[in-house]
């Protein structure tokens, strides 16, 4: 809910903003939770002639999230800066839903700074920031809120561990390849059963269960995981991501990956037992330099000894315990023994990180530092079966230092004194052709296309953070196709909606600020050059067959971000 506007106010009247919060972890209906929290707040301020003129209520956000990162709470904090906000008091119906841990201590100084008083039912009126008793009461509520959340987490996890270990209950998630879900009847919890929730279990999938059994059989017969992936792909057997595309839109399903075969060979669910706690959610600081921003959840894999495996067989097994253990032992014996740890060198700053693509498979090439030289490699055949009829070299490799010079000369040539005026004129024409809305408008196909651009940016960030290039390439390709369709159907903008674009003089002024680009690029640090390349939306496509690099810069959408080089711009 957004703040309601206030029309007129009296110097002596007391006007309030209400704040409340409910989340899924509270297991309450948002509407009923809002009503009773608001009722408590209203009962507190009505006897003193108070009127609630603005309402802020967060739904679905955990209490552990700081106010700055909650949508409605952040709007309330932003409203404090407006001298015409229309209220000088904030009332909260239940403090331990609003404050968690030390959040009260971080919020009350902000309210006091803007002359806004905080009212809570527990003290019967406004909080006095200088009153130690009030401060102690609110700190206790913050501690109670944190303790309550911790207790809920412990109870839930303990219950789920017991249900998985002792009862073998299916606790949700995607069924593994080879199984599908079946209905086991109403939920044993009467309240959940009344809400229509039902229990589910695993049952063999007639189409994929035989494939799982074949993988185990072929592996124990002496075939390696790559040979198995090759055979399955060549026979046209769909990979897990291709078989269930609706739930795997982000994955590349054109071939069986070695990793998919390995996951199947190491999944104890195929013995008929339930498995839980393969992953955990850790809370890590959003910014180590600003602890007030709180934590964010990060999914991480647990070691195998932390997995919870049911004691009894609870669904039809696809392989026996003997077969599974034999495959696991064989897989372990084939693994390379870990080498002795050696001190790592300082990580090499790859200048073209995430900017180079393989011309054959269109995947991003990965950096590799060897003998003090930086390379970029594409190892599609080592990750995916080649039987998908893609003619891909076994190893595509490009040396970094052989590309830096030509790329920098190509970029700087556009701003060479002999071509500078021509380049500026070209940019001015391109920018003037772009039409952007001057005022907010209704959602159009163009807005949808912008959403896809954001999605693609997130995919690229995931790649930078270590996601599989093959997987991310599939995501990006699909998103780009959908974006292009949206752009093609975008209605033409009206002349009245256009805004003035940058003139040639504006661009010339920016170019002058950049100074001697050739010298700046030559002397820039690798990190600065990478930032510049990314701001120019540089894309390099390497062809191993012709030993050439195709370079492209998207000037049409360039935002003219200035990149720091040698202390300047």
UniProtKB/TrEMBL annotation:
Highest taxon listed in the record's lineage: Bacteria
Signal peptide: none
MF annotations from Gene Ontology: DNA binding; DNA strand exchange activity
UniProt domain Recombinase: residue ranges: 176-337
Alphabetical list of InterPro entries matching this protein: DNA_bind_recomb_sf, DNA_bind_recombinase_dom, Resolv_N, Resolvase-like_N_sf, SSR_resolvase, Zn_ribbon_recom_dom
Record's protein name: Putative recombinase
């Amino acid at each position: 809910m957004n703040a309601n506007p206030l029309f007129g106010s009296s110097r002596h009247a007391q006007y309030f903003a209400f704040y409340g919060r409910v989340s899924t972890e509270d297991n309450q209906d948002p509407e009923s939770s809002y009503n009773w929290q608001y009722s408590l707040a209203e009962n507190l301020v009505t006897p003193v002639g108070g009127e609630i003129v603005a309402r802020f209520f967060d739904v679905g956000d955990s209490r552990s999230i700081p106010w700055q990162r909650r949508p409605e709470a952040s709007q309330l904090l932003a409203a404090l800066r407006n001298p015409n906000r229309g209220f000088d008091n904030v009332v909260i119906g239940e403090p331990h839903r609003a404050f968690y841990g030390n959040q009260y201590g971080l919020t009350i100084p902000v309210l006091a700074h803007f002359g806004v008083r905080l009212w809570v039912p527990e003290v019967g009126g406004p909080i006095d920031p200088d009153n130690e008793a009030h401060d102690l009461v609110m700190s206790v509520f913050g501690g109670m809120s944190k303790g309550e959340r911790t207790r809920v987490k412990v109870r839930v996890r303990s219950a789920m561990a017991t249900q998985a270990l002792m009862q073998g209950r299916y606790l949700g998630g995607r069924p593994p390849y080879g199984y599908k879900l079946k209905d086991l009847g109403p939920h044993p919890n009467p309240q959940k059963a009344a809400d229509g929730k039902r229990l589910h279990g695993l049952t063999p999938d007639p189409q994929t269960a035989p494939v799982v059994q074949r993988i185990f059989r072929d592996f124990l017969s002496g075939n390696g995981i790559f040979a198995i992936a090759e055979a399955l792909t060549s026979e046209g057997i769909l990979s897990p991501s291709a078989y269930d595309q609706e739930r795997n839109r982000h994955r590349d399903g054109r071939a069986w990956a070695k990793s998919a075969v390995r996951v199947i060979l190491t999944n104890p669910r195929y013995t008929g037992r339930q498995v839980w706690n393969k992953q955990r959610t850790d809370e890590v600081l959003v910014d180590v330099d600003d602890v007030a921003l709180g934590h964010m959840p990060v999914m991480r894999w647990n070691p195998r000894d932390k997995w919870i495996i049911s004691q009894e067989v609870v669904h039809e097994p696809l392989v026996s315990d003997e077969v599974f253990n034999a495959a696991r032992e064989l897989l372990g014996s084939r693994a390379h023994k870990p080498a002795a740890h050696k001190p790592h060198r300082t990580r090499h700053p790859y200048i073209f990180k995430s900017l180079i693509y393989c011309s054959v498979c269109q995947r991003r090439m990965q950096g590799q530092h060897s003998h003090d030289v930086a390379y970029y490699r594409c190892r599609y055949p080592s990750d995916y079966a080649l039987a998908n009829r893609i003619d891909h070299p076994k190893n595509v490799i490009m040396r970094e230092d052989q590309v830096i010079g030509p790329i920098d000369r190509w970029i700087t040539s556009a701003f060479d004194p002999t071509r500078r005026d021509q380049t500026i004129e070209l940019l001015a024409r391109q920018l003037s052709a772009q039409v952007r809305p001057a005022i907010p408008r209704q959602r159009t196909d163009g807005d949808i296309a912008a959403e896809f651009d954001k999605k693609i940016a997130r995919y690229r960030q995931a790649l930078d953070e270590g996601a599989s290039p093959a997987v991310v390439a599939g995501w990006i390709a699909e998103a780009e196709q959908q974006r292009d369709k949206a752009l093609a159907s975008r209605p033409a903008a009206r002349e009245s909606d256009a805004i003035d674009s940058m003139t040639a003089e504006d661009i010339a002024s920016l170019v002058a600020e950049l100074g001697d680009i050739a010298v700046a690029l030559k002397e820039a640090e690798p990190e600065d050059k990478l930032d510049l390349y990314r701001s120019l939306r540089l894309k390099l496509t390497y062809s191993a067959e012709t030993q050439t690099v195709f370079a492209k810069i998207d000037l049409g959408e360039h935002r003219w971000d200035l990149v720091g080089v040698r202390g300047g711009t």
